[in-house]
Amino acid sequence: MTHTTLPLPTSGIDLFADDVLHDPYPALRELREAGPAVRLTAYDAWVLPRYDHVRAALADHERFSSAQGVGYEDQFNTQMKGTVLASDPPDHTRLRALLSDKLAPKALAGLRTRIAALADDLVAEAVAKGDFDAVADLAAVFPVTVVADLIGLTEDARGPLLSFADAAFNTFGPFNARSEAAIPFVGQMFEYLNTVMVPENLRPDGWASAVYEASDRGDIEAASVVPLLTAYVVASMDTTINAIGNTILLFARHPQAYQEVRGEPALVGPAFEESLRLESPAQGFFRRTTQPVDIEGITIPADTKVLLSFASANRDERKWERPEEFLVRRNPVDHIGFGYGVHGCAGQGLARLEAQAVLGALVRRVSSIELAGEPVRKLNNVIRGLASLPVTVRAEGQ
Ligand code: HEM
Predict the structure, then answer these.
(1) Which of 111, 146, 318, 366 is the most exposed, having the fewest neighbouring CB atoms within 10 Å of its CB?
(2) Residue 235 predicted with pLDDT over 50
(3) Residue nearest to ligand 1 atom 17, measured at CA
(4) In whole angstroms, how large is the CA radius of gyration of the chain?
């Protein structure tokens, strides 16, 4: 019997280099073409660039483990150990259950009116200016206010949370200028959250109090309380901010699509999902193989870091027709912008509620959105988004 050995797909692409982060899509297309699993020579890692394999890996936590962290560097992964993000079942199941009722549809339904009113006020304020920065004045303000409130933090404890979240995501990448600059921030973040997230500072009905109660009952160790809450703080901020910012940019660049949504406001939800597919705020996370894994005849060795590229999967031409286009009627319900499987985003209901509240208010109040200057990209090792998005809007009826 003869054995044929397939050539091993390799690539020298550096997915964390500045020029690639500015526009990752040509590099991701090249990786999809290179093979179903590609060894990245710039790192000690592999990447899965095609939709079917990314989704299958997300559904296979036994072979694609999160327990050693979902970033690249061991040093940073250690900091996240024992959190919901960096654990496998059965530990993961127990950790995730701690806040699941707070994020369940029933709990979210109770928030809908408050979140909608807050979004409407913010949008009205921004629109009154005519020219505003859709990131600083809108997208960035909203999730911080909502999440800090849900955690149960007092108003003055919210200030630095934003810069922390950006820094934390940078440390999920390899050592580079971004992750190195982030190290002191992440140290400060843990110190800060250890100081402010103490029971006497927290509202009794918030997420943080619920986690403290779980620790009092002995469901989790006391030492896990702040790391667990930190993972929720980090996961909920820049993701949502950039999801909102990216969608407003798509609306500004595709005025016809914006008018289509205005004419049929039920399209706000599908347009947001399409934005998550096309410009996935969380571009990808790593897993570690627990055994050799065969992907269409290519073997990824055991104990290998594998980047699951959500951004690439979400534009895979094998899965999507016209994958590069922003089609507000596509309604890509099976995109993996929120991940999939046991680690699928725990806050996706809340993210949708927040984004749809802001975008819905925009659609009601604004008849046109135009760029008032070049959008400025914020480079981050994991998150795709904008530092600034200057727009001019015309208020409805003007
Ligand atoms: C549009 C906004 C958001 C996006 C694009 C997003 C994306 C993601 C993705 C891709 C994952 C999977 C990580 C993995 O597979 O390793 C994830 C997990 C997670 N997200 Fe989100 N997220 C968003 C908003 C939020 C919000 C608002 C919260 C607030 C509670 C949140 C909390 C979490 C948590 C706790 C996890 C870890 C779940 C687990 O490991 O079981 N996310 N998110």
Answers:
(1) 318
(2) yes
(3) 345
(4) 21
Question: pLDDT tens-digit profile of 178-198?
Answer: 999 998 888 888 888 888 888
Distance from the alpha carbon of residue 235 to the mean position of ligand 1, in angstroms: 5
d(CA 87, CA 100): 16
Please report which residue ranges of the chain form alpha helices under DSSP H: 18-22, 25-34, 51-58, 74-80, 91-100, 105-109, 112-129, 141-151, 161-170, 177-196, 207-216, 225-253, 255-263, 268-278, 310-313, 348-365
> What CA–CA distance (Å, rounded) separates 281 from 115?
21
Residue 126 has, within 13 A of its CA and on its CB side, a CA count of: 29
Residue with tokens 């402010």: 196
Cα 168 from Cα 275, distance rounded (Å): 23
How far, in Å, CA of 203 to CA of 231, rounded?
19
Residue 39 C-alpha from the chain's centroid: 24
Look up residue 146 and give its two tokens: 């909502």
3-class secondary-structure state, position 307: strand
φ and ψ at residue 84, rounded to 5 degrees? -60, -35
Secondary structure (DSSP) of 310-329: HHHHTT-TTT-SSTTS--TT
Minimum-distance ligand 1 atom for the alpha carbon of 232: 35
Got the DSSP string for 10-76? EE---TTSHHHHHS-HHHHHHHHHH-SSEEETTTTEEEE-SHHHHHHHHT-TTTEE-TT-SSS-HHH
List of residues 6+ apart from 313 with CB closer than 8 A: 48, 49, 50, 51, 54, 55, 319, 336
Average pLDDT, integer, range 359-380: 97
Substitution candidate for ligand 1 out of 229, 307, 345 with most atoms within 8 A of CB: 345
**Contact between 186 and 78 (Cβ < 8 Å):** no
Strand partners, 307: 47, 286
Q: What is the pLDDT of residues 321-365, one digit of tens each?
A: 999 999 999 999 999 999 999 999 999 999 999 999 999 999 999
Give the pLDDT confidence of 33-80 residue by residue, as tens digits: 999 999 999 999 999 999 999 999 999 999 999 999 999 999 889 888
Q: How far apart are CA 244 and CA 121, in angstroms?
A: 16
110 DSSP 8-state letter: T
- Domains of the chain (ranges plus CATH)? 10-395 (1.10.630.10)
